[in-house]
Amino acid sequence: MKIAVKIIIVCMLFVVPFTGNTQNYCMNYHKKFCKTKKDDVFTYNGQSRSALFEGGQTSELRIVTYKGQDYRVTICADKVLGDVKVRILETKKVPVEKKRQEKVVEDVYDSDGNPTGETKEVVNTITETTYEEKVEVLYDNSKDNNAMEVEFSMVASKKLVLELTPSAGAGEMGCIGVLIQHMPTPKKGF
Amino acid sequence: MRKQLSLNTFFLIQISVLSKKQLLLSLKNIVIFATKVKTIPMNKTTRYFSVACICCAVLLAPACGGSDDEIPTDTPVDTTTEVKPEVEKFYQIPAPDEMFAFIKQGGFKYNKSLINPTEELNKYVSPKSQALNFGIYTGDLAYTAAFEEYQSTIKYFGAVRKLADQLGIASAFDESMVARIQNNLSSSDSLVSITGDSYFTIVDYLEQNGRGKTLALMAAGGWLESMYIVVNSINKFDASSPAIERLADQKLTLDNLIEYMNKYTSDNSVVSTIEDFSGIKNAFDQLKQTEGTSTSEKKENKLIFGSSEPSTTITAEQYEAIKKAITELRNKITSNQLS
């Protein structure tokens, strides 16, 4: 019995620190596992993040990138999740005008502007402006040998969407880390 | 014994990677397995070890995550209709240190009068005020570090720690971080790196401990302080200057900040903070945002993302309106005048 108690205690010591903490384990995944070049001139960007994914699940990391900066995005993932499809999108809210017709009943007036007591049905066309999200794909790693690292320069500031989809089937779970780094775009020439 | 071990290991690994639905099935398997253990001929140690492993497996079960609103096991699943799940969106905003590195590079001078004195710290009593001013002080900490104001950095690090203590997140800091600051006073790069690390440690800590609401308020305070320092450091409006352009681009950052706060609208403090920021939001909404065609081209092995037209333009009047709105709200927060 003593041996059993000891074994249970040892197992508990191993397990308890991770209990209720599996998702938290993913939190710093990008800091631990997304390796980049050692001779780095890039600076860590606070928009980096990690999360727990299920195979086939798509999640979006919406970041802000500034004009005149170079960015490097490095993706790292647990092997169980397979290849990760990475797309960089730009979403814009585009005004869309929609016309609808509305029937109203109006009083009929005579030539002097007095109501005749009759009514008529009038069809009014109402134009409403709504904003729809338009998505433009700036980068797709499936067209870049499934690269897990991409560098880009920003000529204009943008809100970018990093869209990630692990290829593994549903039921497979693991961490994905997104390490973002930045630096001022180097100036060329004298 | 070896067979028994591998069986137990299989259960543990299986549990660590399964979805909740499958997990429940696995737990069912474990129970069946546990009842069968008694009937399997083995010595006492092996039996107890098996029982211990089952205990561990059960303890690991809640760690497998998944939200509480997942489909129960006995709900029939429609296999003929493909339902595309709504994509989960995470909104991020750049940390204050990025802005201060940018303005330092632009030749701006350090101005001590722009930061919130640490003596004000005891005024902040309500959790909302503490969280917002925690953000304000983290912004000040990043500012002092970026401009190599070593003594002020120590002082503001102390203020941030004290407020963290009041917010119940003191364990986000440890003594090694304090020691790192004291040991690197002569190196501005290290100081910026350490204060940056401390900011990200706090962010991680709040996320890991389910304090998203506090993080939303802290991020709002940090962003506001960096904006306050920038608008009050600019001497003359020049629409083409990099600092003004970067200020106009904060329209994008503010959008993400508001979206992030919108995730926590179940909390009254966050809702009232969104309202507090509405003046600044309105001022930024006046900026003209031209939606040119996005461009993506590859030059010398490097991707270049741009736009056919400049994205955000700002006039002197709009700049003054933004400056006024930022200054008013920041001073309300630091003087504890928010409801």
What does the model show?
The complex is a heterodimer of chains A (190) and B (339). With 190 residues, chain A is mostly beta strands. Chain A has two domains: 21-93 and 134-184, Jelly Rolls (Sandwich), CATH 2.60.120.680; 97-127, no CATH class. Chain A contains three helices and nine strands. In chain A, strands 1, 2, 4, 7 and 9 form a five-stranded antiparallel beta sheet that branches. Chain A has a four-stranded antiparallel beta sheet with strand order 3-8-5-6, with no helix packed on it. Chain A is elongated, with a radius of gyration of 29 Å. Residues 10-22 of chain A have low confidence and may be disordered. With 339 residues, chain B is mainly alpha-helical. In chain B, 60% of the residues lie in helices and 6% in strands. Chain B contains 14 helices and five strands. In chain B, helix 2 (20-37) packs antiparallel against helix 3 (44-60) and helix 4 (96-105) packs parallel to helix 5 (127-146). The longest helix of chain B is centred in the middle third of the chain and has 21 residues, at 188-208. Chain B is globular and about 50 Å long. Residues 1-40 and 53-84 of chain B have low confidence and may be disordered. The chains are: A mainly beta (190), B mainly alpha (339). At the A-B interface, helix 1, helix 2, strand 1, strand 2 and strand 3 of A face helix 3, strand 1, helix 4, helix 8 and helix 10 of B. Strand 7 (149-154) of chain A pairs parallel with strand 4 (302-307) of chain B.
Key words describing this protein structure:
heterodimer, A: 190 residues, mainly beta, Jelly Rolls, 2 domains, 5-stranded antiparallel beta sheet, 4-stranded antiparallel beta sheet, B: 339 residues, mainly alpha, two-stranded antiparallel ribbon, 60% helix, disordered N terminus
